[in-house]
Amino acid sequence: DGLASDLGHILRASGVAARIDLDTIPTPVSTELAMTGGEDYKLLLTVAPECYAALAENYLAKFGSPLHPVGRITESRAEAPKEEALPDPSVETDGNKIVWLENGKPVTKNWRGFVHF
Questions:
Q1: Most distant CA pair in the chain: distance in Å?
Q2: Distance of alpha carbon 50 from its chain centroid, rounded?
């Protein structure tokens, strides 16, 4: 239902926040459509940083296509680690804090995923 919606589900269930680098999202459509569209686009998952290399290698070997890291989960909604601190143009949607980045800089986007009803 769009990355914004599915990421929101993960954040709500985990009680964490996220930083998403819009420049890294592989999409044949507009970034906004990939974030908010109602069609399935890609698999969204989170993985501990120390496990990423092995997972990416195994995924590529098994499925023949790479994983595409698009952001980071921060430790909590309340605050990011000091080295992760950014100005806060983030959008809080239904209690989920997402910082969208373009060219490494925070941008304000009020994206919500597809709403079924």
A1: 40
A2: 18
What 8-state DSSP symbol labels residue 64? S
- Please work out, in degrees rounded to the nearest 5, the angle formed at the alpha carbon of residue 100 by the alpha carbons of 94 and 104: 160
pLDDT at 83: 43
Q: What average pLDDT values come out for the chain (117 residues) when binned by 10 residues? A: 82 88 87 76 85 96 94 68 43 64 88 62
β partners of residue 101: 21, 106
The span from the CA of 42 to the CA of 67, in Å, is 10
Query: Alpha-carbon distance 17 to 35, whole Å?
Result: 16
Tokens of 28: 């044949």
- For residue 21, give the 3-state DSSP assignment: strand
Q: What is the pTM assigned to this prediction? A: 0.74
